[in-house]
Amino acid sequence: xxxxxxxxxxxxxxxxxxxxxxxxxxxxxxxxxxxxxxxxxxxxxxxxxxxxxxxxxxxxxxxxxxxxxxxxxxxxxxxxxxxxxxxxxxxxxxxxxxxxxxxxxxxxxxxxxxxxxxxxxxxxxxxxxxxxxxxxxxxxxxxxxxxxxxxxxxxxxxxxxxxxxxxxxxxxxxxxxxxxxxxxxxxxxxxxxxxxxxxxxxxxxxxxxxxxxxxxxxxxxxxxxxxxxxxxxxxxxxxxxxxxxxx
Length: 247
Hints:
Elements: H1 2-51, H2 64-69, E1 73-78, E2 85-89, E3 115-116, E4 126-130, H3 149-154, E5 157-162, E6 166-178, H4 196-209, E7 224-231, E8 237-245
Parallel strand pairs: 4-7
Antiparallel strand pairs: 1-2, 1-5, 3-4, 5-6, 6-8, 7-8
């Protein structure tokens, strides 16, 4: 009898423990999931402001409201048939990672806002747009799909529209590296102004390190756009997609 009672107590304690774990997991899931949904909803609202200006599609006026909302606005990044469809900002202060955890309105945000990295701007010879690798696939959460050659071919066109002009970039490489390792490829040092030798070395390095070869590379000297996010292939991993300006 005592054995049976003891077993029942053990089962009860185990059940309570499992329920506690479940409740705890659900709670933490919700406190992460709900803010992310709200953050994406805000991006959708911002996007709708731009979409309403479709009749002025070839005019900088479509972004006037966004510039008034945030003078750090640099342009709009879009890759068709992906979730990448966001405003891009460039931090104007000393903190180059200001938008890592801030939304377009400069409030705290777990998702952050895609931003241009230090040492460059949208008119530099080479510049990087950073964004988080979100588990729900938003922001740059699907960027590492570019490690697949066929997927890269199907999504090789990147659109980036600045206040002044529409631009198109063609993906030609993708790489991954580990920050702080002896073999780290410091792609972030290849931004800003690049002289002829630096540019040529940069393209060669990318060819040597790329995970994919889709048969297209920059013809002559043209602007290079890099999209960078965290990568979970290793601790402190980074995944980078590189594209050259084609239009």
